[in-house]
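wait is this the right file?? whatever heres the structure
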């Protein structure tokens, strides 16, 4: 995306806070394997923090949607244990 001839990048930081570090670790381990050029996931105690970068709002929305779908699956798997 360009604005006035300047190439733009759009960034988003998502912080998922869980009740305990064990739950955060399970979600983190589940979703970080899909990190690529657009997502950087890290773990901070009971929080999973994801930084996302994109070239357009639509692309960022797509990345965020995919990421949250993976988080949802990880959480559902934990609920079924």
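ok assuming it is, sequence goes like this
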């Amino acid at each position: 995306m360009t604005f006035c001839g300047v190439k733009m990048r759009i960034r988003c930081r998502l912080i998922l806070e869980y009740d305990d570090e064990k739950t955060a670790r399970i979600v983190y381990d589940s979703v970080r394997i899909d990190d690529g050029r657009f997502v950087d996931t890290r773990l901070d105690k009971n929080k999973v923090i994801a930084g996302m970068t994109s070239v357009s709002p639509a692309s960022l929305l797509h990345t965020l949607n995919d990421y949250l779908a993976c988080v949802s699956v990880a959480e559902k798997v934990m609920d079924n244990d």
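DSSP finds two helices and five strands in the chain. so i think its the right one actually
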